[in-house]
Amino acid sequence: DTNKIIVAGHSMGGTGVIGAMQRYPEIFSAGIASSGAWSPNEIDQISSPLFIYHGTHDTAVPVQYSVDMKAAAKAQDKPIIVSFLKGGGHGIGDAVYNNLKVWDKILNITK
Q1: Residue 58 Cα distances to 35, 46, 69, 74, 92, angstroms
Q2: Separate counts of helices (H) and strands (E) for the chain
Q3: Which pTM was predicted?
């Protein structure tokens, strides 16, 4: 269904997800970004649900990026849901993308 395009990515791919949803909000019906980094000042165009996941012990991409995104999303009333994986490092991709609950959330929103 070309009206229900989901974008997903980890690390630099997670950053790309947020950027794509910011730059092309009309294309994506939802997104999943894990361990990415993006400026919370650049989310004004995001209009579809975006799920962000970040490990609390990520040493490659500081978790503060996602902490700031969560605060900015709330302040700007954006459909961005940020979740933290307690004790998780940068390699949380498998824990996120192999989790059927994550996909259930996305598929239920995009139906």
Answers
A1: 8, 25, 16, 23, 9
A2: 4, 4
A3: 0.93
